[in-house]
Structure prediction request, 272 residues.
Amino acid sequence: MKDIKIGACDWGLPGAGLYATQIAAAVGLDALSLKIGLYENDYPITQPELQKVYLSEQQKYGVEYCAIALNDFDNIPMHARKGTKEYDIVWDLLRRAVRTAKALGVQVIQVPGFAASEVKSEEDMEHSARAFQYLCDEAGAYGIGVAGENLMTPDEFKKMHEMVGRKNFFLYFDSQNYHLFRGYRELDILEGLYPYMCNQLHVKDGTGAMSGGLLGTGDSGFGDTMRWLDQHGFSGYILLENYYDQLPLRAQAQNPYDLLRQDIEILKKAIG
Prediction:
C-alpha cells in the first residue's frame, strides 16, 4: 500500500492515553486518534487548558492528531430521546466535539455505535441520523469529516447513509469487530461498504476476544483484509487498536511496549 500513515488509538496504548503523544513518537508512529473522555470527568479534552497541552505535545513530538473519538457514546445513547437527561448530554457533547476537533486540527470525528448507541430500531436510526446530520453540518464548515463505527451490515449502513444525506459522512471500518461480535466475514463488509469508508481504519486481532492477540495471530482474517485494501488502492491512516497493557493481550509479554513494537512491525510488513 502507498501513502499510508501508521498510528494508534490513544486508549489502546500503555497507560490508556497518558503521555500518548510522547509514547507514539518514541515508537515511531505517525498519528493518534484521541478519545474525548467521559461525562463523569466533564470530557477533559474539550477544555481549552488541556487542548493547549496536547498542541504543545504535538509541536514537540511531531505526531499528528488524525481523529477524535466520542467514546462516551458506548455509555450514553447517541439516539437518546428529547426530554431525557441523556439527550441533553448527547447534544452538549456533539457541540463540544466540533469545537475540540477544530481546536486540535483533526480530520475526522469518529462516532462509535456500540453498546448504548447501537441502533436496534427504526426510531433509533432516525434519532441517530438527526444527530449525525447536525455533527456533519457543524464539522463540515471546518472541512472535518464524521465517521460512524458500528456493526451494521452493508444494507443497514447504506440506509443510514441515505438518511444522513451529507457528503462528509462516512463509515469507520474495524478489522475485527464485525467478525468477533457478529460472525460476519470482514471482506464482505469491505466489499459492500468500501466506497463509504473514510481514509482511516482500526486494526486489531484475536480469537474469541477483542484485542486478544497481535495482528495476524487471530481469526479475524487480518492478512486478507490488508491484501484486499492493497488491491483496492486504500491510502490514509491505519490505526492500531489492540490494548497492549490489558488482558488477554498483555499476558503474551512482560512489557506492553514490546507488544506495541511487535504490532507496528507486523503492520509495516502487511502494508509492504
In short: Residues 85-104 form the longest helix (20 residues). Strands lie at 4-9, 31-35, 64-69, 108-112, 145-149, 169-174, 197-203, 236-240. The CA atoms of residues 245 and 251 lie 9 Å apart.
